[in-house]
Automatic annotation (TrEMBL):
Domain of life of the native organism: Bacteria
Pfam families: Pyridoxal_deC (PF00282)
Listed SUPFAM superfamilies: PLP-dependent transferases
Similarity section: Belongs to the group II decarboxylase family.
Residues carrying N6-(pyridoxal phosphate)lysine: 299
GO cellular component labels: cytoplasm
Originating organism: Sediminicola luteus
Cofactor(s) this protein requires: pyridoxal 5'-phosphate
Gene3D superfamilies: 3.90.1150.170, Aspartate Aminotransferase, domain 1, Type I PLP-dependent aspartate aminotransferase-like (Major domain)
GO molecular function, one term: pyridoxal phosphate binding
Protein name in the entry: Pyridoxal-dependent decarboxylase
InterPro entries: PyrdxlP-dep_de-COase, PyrdxlP-dep_Trfase, PyrdxlP-dep_Trfase_major, PyrdxlP-dep_Trfase_small
Keywords: Decarboxylase, Lyase, Pyridoxal phosphate
GO BP terms, alphabetized: carboxylic acid metabolic process
Length: 473
C-alpha cells in the first residue's frame, strides 16, 4: 500500500475534489439550506462503507461529498440567515489545504519559525486594531471563542492569584465569581466548569430594555458579594451577543472594573469584526481599556472554522498561565527574543491556524475586509427597512446585521413563530431561527454571508409574507 499514491493518481484525486468543490462553490444557491435529518439513513450510508480493505479514492470522495451535500445545513448559502457561521472565503479554504500539506508543527518556534512569526505578526496587528498598547500586550490564536474565553478565565485567575498555577483552587481562601449578562454566550459557563470554578459562580446580570447588561445592577451585585467568602474575579462584556447582536456598554463596564480592581474581558467573538470598518468601530468604544479580548476570525472574517484570537493587555500573563518546562522540547531558540507557542496556550501540538487569516489578508487586504463588513452591515439595514415596510416589527437595536423581528398582528401568538419557522425550514429556501427576547419569541435573521444581496433579502421577505398570509387564512 502506497500512502502517497503516485503522481498520476494524486492529480486525478485533486481533479475530482476540485471539480466537486467548484460545483458547490458556484452553485451554492441551488442547494437546499436545510438537510433531511434522517438518522437511520445517515448511519446506514456510513456503515455500508468498507473500512477494512478501503475503497477506490474517487468513490470515497463521491461518498464524502454526497454525505456533506445531502446532510448539512448549508451555511455558505447566501440565504443562510443564521448563526454566525460564514461562507468560507477562497483564500481561507486554500490556506487550510496548504496547512494540511506542509503540516508545520507550531508548538515550538524552532520547528516552524515562519509560521510562528506570521501568527505573531497577525496578533500584533489585531492588538493595534483593537487599540491595545502594542508594547505591553500579547495574544495567541485559539481554535474558537470557547477556547479564547477559557483562556481569559485562566488568565484572570493567574493574574489575581500569584500561586494559582501551583496550587490551583485549593490555594484560594475565597470563591472567585465571574459576572456577565444574561445574554452572554454559554461558553462562559463552560469555561467556569472546565477551570474548576463551577458554573454556580457565574453570576448573570439581567439586561436593560435595550438588551445590554444593566451596569447599575452589575455594580450592586459586586458590592453585595459576601466578601468574607467570595471575591469578584472578572466581568465579561459582550460585543455582539449571539442572540441579538447587542453590544454592552464597554466603557461603563471598564470603569466599574477599574474602580473595583476586577479583570475586564470583552467577548467580541462576532462583533469584534466591527473594528475592521471605520463606519462601525465606534460601537466598540471602551474595548481598548480591556484586560483581554476574544475575537473569532471564523465568524465575520469568513475564514474556515477553527480560527479565533485571544488578546491581552498583560504581556506576561499567558506565559505565567501556561508555561511548563520540559526536557524534550527543542531549546535552540531559547536565547532568541521569541515566544514558544506551546508555553502560551492551552494547546501543545499546534496547527497553523493563523494562515487562514494571513492568506485572506494577502488576497483581499484589510481594505477588502472593510468593504465586506460594510456591505453586510448595509444588507442588515436593507433587511430592517424591508421588514418595517411590510409591517414586521424589529425587536432589537444594534448596528450589526442581526435582526430580531415579529409581526404586528401576531406578537403575542407563540404558535405563530413556531409554525412559520417550521414551514420555512421544511421548504429549504432560506434558513432563519427563532430567539426569545425577554421570553417573547422572535425570528432572528443575521447576514453572515458576503454574497448575500438585496435579491436574497427580497426573496426572504416574500417568503415571510407568504407564510404569514397562509397562517392568517
Ligand atoms: C460564537 C460565540 C462564542 C463561541 O465561540 P466558538 O468559536 O463557537 O467557540 C462565544 N461568544 C460569543 C459571543 C459568540 O458569538
Amino acid at each position: 500500500m502506497n500512502f502517497d499514491f503516485d503522481e498520476k493518481q494524486r492529480k486525478e484525486i485533486l481533479n475530482t475534489v476540485s471539480q466537486k468543490i467548484e460545483h458547490f462553490y458556484t452553485n451554492t444557491k441551488d442547494y437546499s439550506t436545510t438537510p433531511e435529518l434522517n438518522l437511520q439513513e445517515i448511519r446506514n450510508i456510513i456503515a455500508s462503507e468498507n473500512l477494512v480493505s478501503g475503497t477506490e479514492p474517487n468513490k470515497a470522495i463521491e461518498h464524502i461529498i454526497t454525505g456533506l451535500e445531502n446532510y448539512s445545513v448549508h451555511t455558505p448559502h447566501p440565504k443562510y440567515f443564521g448563526l454566525f457561521n460564514p461562507r468560507a472565503n477562497f483564500a481561507g479554504i486554500i490556506a487550510d489545504f496548504i496547512t494540511a500539506s506542509y503540516n508545520p508543527q507550531l508548538a515550538a518556534w524552532s520547528h516552524a519559525p515562519f509560521a510562528v512569526e506570521v501568527e505573531a505578526h497577525l496578533i500584533n496587528q489585531f492588538i493595534e486594531k483593537f487599540g491595545l498598547n502594542p508594547k505591553k500586550s500579547d495574544g495567541v490564536f485559539t481554535t474558537g471563542g470557547a477556547e479564547a474565553n477559557l483562556t481569559a478565565v485562566l488568565s484572570a485567575l493567574n493574574n489575581k492569584h500569584p500561586d494559582f498555577a501551583k496550587n490551583g483552587m485549593f490555594g484560594l481562601d475565597k470563591k472567585p465569581v465571574i459576572f456577565c449578562s444574561q445574554e452572554a454566550h454559554h461558553s462562559v459557563q463552560k469555561a467556569a466548569k472546565i477551570a474548576g470554578l463551577g458554573y454556580e459562580f457565574v453570576k448573570t446580570i439581567p439586561t436593560t430594555k435595550d438588551l445590554k447588561i444593566d451596569t447599575d445592577l452589575l455594580e450592586k451585585e459586586i458590592k453585595n458579594l459576601n466578601n468574607s467568602t467570595h471575591s469578584p474575579l472578572m466581568v465579561i462584556g459582550t460585543a455582539g451577543t449571539t442572540g441579538t447582536g447587542t453590544v454592552d456598554d464597554l466603557e461603563a463596564i471598564s470603569k466599574i472594573c477599574k474602580k473595583n480592581g476586577i479583570w475586564f474581558h470583552v467577548d467580541a467573538a462576532y462583533g469584534g469584526g466591527a473594528v475592521l470598518s471605520s463606519n462601525l468601530k465606534h460601537i466598540l468604544k471602551g474595548i481598548s481599556a480591556s484586560d483581554s479580548i476574544t475575537f473569532d476570525a471564523h465568524k465575520w472574517m469568513s475564514v474556515p472554522m477553527g480560527t479565533s484570537v485571544f488578546l491581552t493587555s498583560h504581556q506576561e500573563i499567558l506565559n505565567k498561565t501556561f508555561r511548563i518546562t520540559t526536557e524534550y522540547m527543542p531549546k535552540e531558540a531559547n536565547e532568541l527574543e521569541i515566544v514558544e507557542p506551546f508555553s502560551h496556550s492551552i494547546q501543545w501540538s499546534r496547527r497553523f491556524i493563523g494562515l487562514k487569516v494571513y492568506s485572506s489578508l494577502l488576497f483581499y487586504g484589510w481594505n477588502g475586509y472593510e468593504k465586506v463588513i460594510n456591505h453586510q452591515a448595509k444588507m442588515g439595514e436593507y433587511l430592517r427597512t424591508k421588514l418595517t415596510e411590510n409591517n414586521w416589527i424589529i425587536k432589537n437595536s444594534t448596528e450589526l446585521p442581526v435582526i430580531c423581528f415579529t409581526h404586528q398582528k401576531f406578537e403575542s401568538d407563540a404558535n405563530f413563530t413556531k409554525t412559520i419557522l417550521d414551514n420555512i425550514l421544511a421548504k429549504g429556501n432560506s434558513w432563519i431561527s427563532v430567539y426569545p427576547i425577554k421570553n417573547v419569541p422572535t425570528f432572528r435573521a443575521c447576514i453572515t454571508n458576503y454574497n448575500t444581496t438585496e435579491t436574497e433579502i427580497d426573496e426572504l421577505i416574500e417568503e415571510l409574507n407568504k407564510e404569514r398570509k397562509a397562517y392568517q387564512d
